[in-house]
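Example (one chain per record):
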Amino acid sequence: MAVIRVTGDPGSGTTTLCKKLALELNYDFHYTGQIFREFAEIAGLSLTEFYIKLESDPELEKNIDKRQIQLMLNFDRLVVDGRMAPFLPCRFKTINILLKVSEGIGARRLSNRPEYQKKSIQEIIESVRTRVQTEKERYQKLYGETYMRGIEDHLAYNKDIFHISMHTNFYTAEQVFQEVLRQILPKTKSLLASS
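Predicted structure:
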Protein backbone atom coordinates (compact mmCIF):
# COMPACT_ATOMS: atom_id res chain seq x y z
CA MET A 1 0.00 0.00 0.00
CA ALA A 2 1.07 3.60 -0.49
CA VAL A 3 0.83 7.16 0.71
CA ILE A 4 0.11 9.58 -2.13
CA ARG A 5 1.52 13.03 -1.32
CA VAL A 6 0.52 16.09 -3.32
CA THR A 7 1.96 19.59 -3.31
CA GLY A 8 1.75 22.50 -5.71
CA ASP A 9 1.18 26.16 -6.41
CA PRO A 10 -1.88 27.91 -4.96
CA GLY A 11 -4.71 27.46 -7.47
CA SER A 12 -3.04 24.51 -9.22
CA GLY A 13 -5.81 22.13 -8.12
CA THR A 14 -4.12 20.03 -5.43
CA THR A 15 -7.10 19.73 -3.09
CA THR A 16 -9.56 18.92 -5.88
CA LEU A 17 -7.17 16.29 -7.24
CA CYS A 18 -6.65 14.76 -3.79
CA LYS A 19 -10.37 14.46 -3.11
CA LYS A 20 -10.93 12.76 -6.47
CA LEU A 21 -7.99 10.37 -5.99
CA ALA A 22 -9.09 9.41 -2.48
CA LEU A 23 -12.60 8.66 -3.72
CA GLU A 24 -11.41 6.71 -6.76
CA LEU A 25 -8.80 4.65 -4.88
CA ASN A 26 -10.79 4.29 -1.64
CA TYR A 27 -8.00 6.03 0.31
CA ASP A 28 -8.37 8.38 3.26
CA PHE A 29 -7.76 12.05 2.50
CA HIS A 30 -5.86 14.36 4.85
CA TYR A 31 -4.78 17.89 4.06
CA THR A 32 -2.82 20.51 5.95
CA GLY A 33 -5.77 22.90 5.76
CA GLN A 34 -7.86 20.41 7.74
CA ILE A 35 -5.17 20.17 10.44
CA PHE A 36 -4.86 24.00 10.50
CA ARG A 37 -8.62 24.27 11.01
CA GLU A 38 -8.58 21.71 13.84
CA PHE A 39 -5.73 23.52 15.62
CA ALA A 40 -7.47 26.89 15.13
CA GLU A 41 -10.69 25.51 16.59
CA ILE A 42 -8.85 24.07 19.60
CA ALA A 43 -7.17 27.48 20.14
CA GLY A 44 -10.52 29.27 19.74
CA LEU A 45 -9.23 31.29 16.77
CA SER A 46 -10.51 32.02 13.28
CA LEU A 47 -8.36 30.60 10.48
CA THR A 48 -7.03 34.11 9.66
CA GLU A 49 -6.11 34.68 13.31
CA PHE A 50 -4.43 31.29 13.40
CA TYR A 51 -2.24 32.10 10.35
CA ILE A 52 -1.19 35.34 12.07
CA LYS A 53 -0.34 33.36 15.21
CA LEU A 54 1.85 30.99 13.15
CA GLU A 55 4.10 33.91 12.19
CA SER A 56 4.94 34.60 15.83
CA ASP A 57 4.91 30.98 17.00
CA PRO A 58 6.96 28.73 14.68
CA GLU A 59 6.68 25.80 17.09
CA LEU A 60 2.95 25.70 16.37
CA GLU A 61 3.75 24.98 12.71
CA LYS A 62 6.14 22.23 13.77
CA ASN A 63 3.31 20.66 15.76
CA ILE A 64 1.16 20.68 12.62
CA ASP A 65 3.97 19.00 10.65
CA LYS A 66 4.33 16.46 13.47
CA ARG A 67 0.64 15.65 13.18
CA GLN A 68 1.00 15.03 9.46
CA ILE A 69 4.14 12.95 10.05
CA GLN A 70 2.26 10.81 12.60
CA LEU A 71 -0.41 10.11 10.01
CA MET A 72 2.21 9.04 7.46
CA LEU A 73 4.07 6.88 9.98
CA ASN A 74 0.96 5.03 11.14
CA PHE A 75 -1.39 4.75 8.18
CA ASP A 76 -1.09 3.87 4.51
CA ARG A 77 -3.81 4.16 1.89
CA LEU A 78 -3.64 7.93 2.40
CA VAL A 79 -3.81 10.88 0.05
CA VAL A 80 -2.03 13.78 1.77
CA ASP A 81 -2.26 17.37 0.51
CA GLY A 82 0.25 19.86 1.89
CA ARG A 83 3.04 22.18 0.89
CA MET A 84 5.61 20.16 2.88
CA ALA A 85 3.98 16.71 2.57
CA PRO A 86 6.44 15.16 0.06
CA PHE A 87 9.41 16.18 2.24
CA LEU A 88 8.22 14.75 5.56
CA PRO A 89 9.08 11.26 6.88
CA CYS A 90 6.81 8.40 5.86
CA ARG A 91 7.00 4.71 6.82
CA PHE A 92 5.27 3.46 3.69
CA LYS A 93 5.91 3.53 -0.04
CA THR A 94 5.12 6.97 -1.44
CA ILE A 95 3.94 8.48 -4.69
CA ASN A 96 4.74 12.21 -4.79
CA ILE A 97 2.83 14.52 -7.11
CA LEU A 98 3.61 18.14 -8.03
CA LEU A 99 1.07 20.47 -9.67
CA LYS A 100 2.17 23.80 -11.14
CA VAL A 101 0.12 26.74 -12.45
CA SER A 102 0.86 30.27 -13.63
CA GLU A 103 -0.01 33.12 -11.24
CA GLY A 104 -2.83 34.53 -13.37
CA ILE A 105 -4.65 31.26 -13.98
CA GLY A 106 -4.14 30.19 -10.36
CA ALA A 107 -5.61 33.52 -9.21
CA ARG A 108 -8.65 33.13 -11.50
CA ARG A 109 -9.32 29.71 -10.00
CA LEU A 110 -8.90 31.03 -6.46
CA SER A 111 -11.38 33.84 -7.20
CA ASN A 112 -14.17 31.26 -6.81
CA ARG A 113 -13.34 30.77 -3.13
CA PRO A 114 -15.40 32.83 -0.65
CA GLU A 115 -12.37 34.59 0.84
CA TYR A 116 -11.34 35.94 -2.58
CA GLN A 117 -14.69 36.74 -4.21
CA LYS A 118 -14.52 40.50 -3.55
CA LYS A 119 -10.92 40.83 -4.75
CA SER A 120 -9.58 41.60 -8.22
CA ILE A 121 -7.29 39.09 -9.96
CA GLN A 122 -4.32 41.38 -9.27
CA GLU A 123 -5.25 41.58 -5.57
CA ILE A 124 -5.44 37.78 -5.43
CA ILE A 125 -2.03 37.49 -7.12
CA GLU A 126 -0.54 39.89 -4.56
CA SER A 127 -2.23 38.03 -1.70
CA VAL A 128 -0.86 34.69 -2.93
CA ARG A 129 2.64 36.14 -3.38
CA THR A 130 2.54 37.44 0.20
CA ARG A 131 1.28 34.10 1.51
CA VAL A 132 3.96 32.13 -0.33
CA GLN A 133 6.70 34.50 0.87
CA THR A 134 5.42 34.34 4.45
CA GLU A 135 5.31 30.54 4.29
CA LYS A 136 8.84 30.45 2.92
CA GLU A 137 10.10 32.67 5.76
CA ARG A 138 8.34 30.50 8.33
CA TYR A 139 9.77 27.32 6.83
CA GLN A 140 13.27 28.82 6.77
CA LYS A 141 12.97 29.57 10.50
CA LEU A 142 11.73 26.06 11.14
CA TYR A 143 13.99 24.02 8.88
CA GLY A 144 16.94 26.23 7.96
CA GLU A 145 18.15 27.93 4.79
CA THR A 146 19.96 24.88 3.36
CA TYR A 147 16.90 22.67 3.78
CA MET A 148 14.68 25.25 2.10
CA ARG A 149 17.05 25.63 -0.85
CA GLY A 150 16.90 21.85 -1.27
CA ILE A 151 13.11 21.93 -1.28
CA GLU A 152 13.05 24.74 -3.85
CA ASP A 153 15.36 22.65 -6.06
CA HIS A 154 13.01 19.68 -5.68
CA LEU A 155 9.98 21.80 -6.59
CA ALA A 156 11.58 22.50 -9.99
CA TYR A 157 10.14 19.27 -11.41
CA ASN A 158 12.80 17.13 -9.70
CA LYS A 159 12.09 13.56 -10.83
CA ASP A 160 14.02 12.16 -7.86
CA ILE A 161 11.31 13.49 -5.54
CA PHE A 162 8.21 13.70 -7.76
CA HIS A 163 6.91 10.65 -9.54
CA ILE A 164 4.31 12.75 -11.37
CA SER A 165 4.66 16.45 -12.29
CA MET A 166 2.02 18.35 -14.21
CA HIS A 167 1.47 21.95 -15.27
CA THR A 168 -2.30 22.45 -14.99
CA ASN A 169 -2.70 25.76 -16.86
CA PHE A 170 -4.71 24.45 -19.78
CA TYR A 171 -6.49 21.51 -18.17
CA THR A 172 -9.77 21.18 -16.32
CA ALA A 173 -9.80 19.56 -12.88
CA GLU A 174 -11.27 16.42 -14.45
CA GLN A 175 -8.53 16.29 -17.11
CA VAL A 176 -5.82 16.67 -14.44
CA PHE A 177 -7.44 13.89 -12.41
CA GLN A 178 -7.71 11.54 -15.41
CA GLU A 179 -4.08 12.15 -16.43
CA VAL A 180 -2.74 11.66 -12.89
CA LEU A 181 -4.91 8.56 -12.47
CA ARG A 182 -3.57 7.19 -15.77
CA GLN A 183 -0.01 7.63 -14.46
CA ILE A 184 -0.69 6.56 -10.89
CA LEU A 185 -2.48 3.24 -11.43
CA PRO A 186 0.58 1.36 -12.75
CA LYS A 187 2.60 2.76 -9.82
CA THR A 188 0.07 1.66 -7.19
CA LYS A 189 -0.15 -1.81 -8.79
CA SER A 190 3.64 -2.20 -8.70
CA LEU A 191 3.66 -1.08 -5.04
CA LEU A 192 1.02 -3.68 -4.22
CA ALA A 193 3.06 -6.35 -5.98
CA SER A 194 6.23 -5.43 -4.05
CA SER A 195 4.59 -5.28 -0.58
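Caption: The mean pLDDT is 83.
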